[in-house]
Design a protein that fits this description.
By secondary structure, this protein is mainly alpha-helical. Among the domains are: about 70 residues, Multidrug-efflux Transporter Regulator, Chain: A, Domain 2; about 100 residues, Antibiotic binding domain of TipA-like multidrug resistance regulators (Globin-like, Orthogonal Bundle). About 70% of the residues lie in helices and about 5% in strands. The protein has 12 helices and 3 strands, in the order βααββαααααααααα. Helix 10 packs antiparallel against helix 12. The chain starts with a strand and ends in a 5-residue tail after the last helix.
Length: about 250
């Protein structure tokens, strides 16, 4: 069966503009252009669009997806199995969170008791597993397996107060960074406050802090499109601004 842009967009739940953009960047070309100049998509393109949607749901950027699906050795069956494994991990995380909610409901209704440690155990485990799933390979290569394992253990051993503190710090980093970005000055007082808050946030995860590692992490926010997308979500250029602010903070820039 063949589809026009309109029909495929309707089938897949995406906009026609998205399909045209995918064609422009070479991630999803139509099977052919008909005599009237319309893009026509076949089953192979439908299958690829499904794969692209899968990867997008997992948080991958288009550059990474293009690299994967256009690789000469790309195997859709293997990719689907890997996608399934990631979905199973997500389900485990959601099951853990649901169980935590169920316990909390039972506590509020007086049917059981729940320690403060149990209340936050699920959140901490989700945080560690989600970070491992997204960045585990890269951060192990960059910082070493022992350092990452120590960081994960530090998270799991956080007290309720520490977990609340680091969560609040993360919010403060984003709010301060957004305000600092408006000034356009990564060396300014507000930007340096954001960099210092970022350092404080890191100390809850790292075994020990050092300026070189902090500067290296800031550079990774720019080099890795997943981090860039996270920081640039509200305002493009924020990841680079944070990188520069941290480089001033750590003495990498004068």
């Amino acid at each position: 069966m063949e589809y026009t842009v309109q029909k495929l967009a309707s089938l897949a739940g995406v906009s026609t503009r998205t399909l045209r953009y995918y064609d422009e960047i070479g991630i999803l070309k139509p099977a052919r252009i008909n005599s009237s100049g319309y893009r026509i998509y076949g089953q192979e393109e439908v299958n690829r669009l499904q794969q692209i949607r899968f990867f997008r749901e997992l948080g991958l950027g288009l550059d990474s997806i293009k690299e994967i699906v256009t690789a000469p050795d790309f195997d859709s069956a293997i990719a689907l199995r890997e996608h399934r494994e990631k979905l199973l991990k997500k389900r485990e995380q959601l099951d853990l969170l649901i169980a935590n909610v169920d316990k909390t409901i039972a506590v509020s209704e007086g049917r059981m008791t729940m320690s403060n440690k149990e209340k936050f155990e699920g959140f901490k485990k989700m945080l560690v597993e989600d970070n491992e799933d997204k960045y585990g390979k890269e951060i192990r290569e960059k910082y070493g397996k022992d350092n990452i394992e120590a960081s994960n253990a530090k998270v799991m051993n956080m007290t309720q107060e520490q977990f609340e503190e680091v969560t609040t710090l993360a919010d403060q980093v984003h709010v301060t960074l957004a305000e600092a970005f408006k000034t356009g000055d990564p060396a300014g007082e507000l930007a340096q406050k954001a960099a210092d808050l970022h350092k404080q946030w890191l100390t809850y995860y790292w075994k020990e802090y050092n300026k070189e590692a902090h500067a290296g992490l800031a550079q990774m926010y720019v080099d890795d499109e997943r981090f860039t997308a996270y920081y640039d979500k509200e305002q493009p250029g924020t990841a680079e601004f944070l990188r520069d602010a941290i480089h001033f903070y750590t003495g990498q820039k004068k």
